[in-house]
Design brief:
It contains 7 helices and 13 strands. It is an alpha/beta fold. Bound molecules: pyridoxal-5'-phosphate.
C-alpha cells in the first residue's frame, strides 16, 4: 500500500511501500518454528529513489520538518523506534501529526496533508467524524470501564451477530492481535492439535506477522505456535495445508492488507474463517 501525501508548503512526498509486493511462491506449506529472529518485512522508507532527485527530496523533507525531527528524537528516548507501531515509521523520520479532521492531517510544522491512508483502512469514514464523536461523548457521559456488566455490550454484540450470519456469539477484545490470539488458542484447545495454518505475507497482529513463503524466519516477535505458511490464494497450497493431520485451525484475511491488498479468491476464502 502506498499513500501520496502533499504538503501545503509545496513539498510533496510519497509514503510507501508498506510491506507491499508479491514474492514468487517458492514452496508449499513451509513450517516455521519457535525463535524467529529476522524481520519479516522492510521498514517503509520515504524518498527511497536513488540518485540526486532522491537525495534532494530527502534534504527538502528534512528542512521542512524540523519540528517533526525534534519530536522524533524526543520520542525515540521513551518508545522503541519513537512510535507505537513500527508500520508508522519511514526514513528519515515520520512527520508528527497534531490534529486530524475529515481527510486532512496537520503536522507539528504546520503542513497540511490529504490523507489517502485512512489509518490503513480502519479509518475510512475520515478523521473525527461527527456521528462517531457524538456517540463516544454520549457513552463517556454514562461512565466507562465500569468493572461490571453493561447493557451497551449486549447492544453491540447483537448488532454484530445480526449483521454477520456466520457469527453466533462475540467475545470482545482490546485489539485485533488479541482477538486472533484468542481464536487460535481456542481452536487449538478445542481440537487438541498444534498446527496453525497461515498464508505468506499475512498480518494478523503485532505477534502474528508472516513474510515470504520461503523465509527461514518470520516476524521476530511472533508467538511460538507451530505455524504452517501456505501460498496465499492457491488451491494446491490450501490442499497441502489441510493434509496436515495435526492442523488445528487456519487464519486468513479475505483481502490481505499488508501483503499488498491481495484478495483471496472464493475457493480459498470459503475454506476458512476470515479475520
Ligand atoms: C488483518 C489484520 N489483522 C489483525 C490486525 C491487528 O490488529 P490490532 O492492531 O488491533 O492488534 C490488523 C491491524 O492492522 C490487521 O490489519
Amino acid at each position: 500500500m502506498s499513500s501520496r501525501l502533499r504538503a501545503a508548503g509545496g513539498g510533496e512526498c510519497t509514503v510507501g511501500t508498506l510491506r507491499g509486493g508479491r514474492e514468487p511462491a517458492a514452496s508449499v506449506g513451509r513450517e516455521t518454528q519457535r525463535g524467529n529472529h529476522d524481520r519479516a518485512d522492510p521498514i517503509p522508507t520515504i524518498g527511497r529513489r536513488s540518485g540526486r532527485r532522491g537525495t534532494a527530496a530527502r534534504a527538502s523533507y528534512v528542512a521542512q520538518h524540523r519540528g517533526s525531527a525534534t519530536a522524533n528524537d524526543r520520542a525515540r528516548v521513551v518508545m522503541p523506534g519513537g512510535n507505537t507501531r513500527s508500520v508508522l515509521h519511514f526514513d528519515p523520520f515520520p512527520f508528527r501529526v497534531t490534529s486530524a479532521a475529515d481527510a486532512t492531517l496537520i503536522d507539528v510544522d504546520g503542513h497540511s496533508y490529504v490523507d489517502f491512508c485512512g489509518n490503513y483502512t480502519a479509518g475510512l469514514p475520515g478523521h473525527s467524524p461527527g456521528l462517531v464523536r457524538d456517540a463516544i461523548i454520549e457513552a463517556l457521559d454514562q461512565g466507562w470501564a465500569v468493572g461490571a456488566t453493561h447493557n451497551r455490550e449486549i447492544e453491540l454484540a447483537e448488532l454484530v451477530c445480526e449483521r454477520f450470519a456466520s457469527i453466533e456469539q462475540v467475545r470482545f477484545t482490546n485489539s485485533g492481535t488479541e482477538a486472533n490470539l484468542m481464536a487460535i488458542g481456542t481452536a487449538l484447545h478445542h481440537t487438541g492439535r498444534t498446527g496453525v495454518g497461515v498464508f505468506d505475507h499475512a498480518y494478523h497482529g503485532g505477534v502474528l506477522g508472516f513474510g515470504d513463503l520461503d523465509a527461514e524466519h518470520h516476524h521476530p516477535l511472533n508467538v511460538p505456535h507451530r505455524f504452517i505458511v501456505a501460498p496465499f490464494d492457491d488451491e494446491a497450497g490450501l490442499d497441502g495445508l489441510f493434509s496436515d493431520t495435526d492442523l488445528g485451525g487456519v487464519v486468513i484475511e479475505a483481502v490481505q492488507g499488508s501483503g499488498g491488498c491481495r484478495r483471496a479468491g472464493p475457493s480459498s476464502a470459503s475454506g476458512s474463517s476470515p479475520t
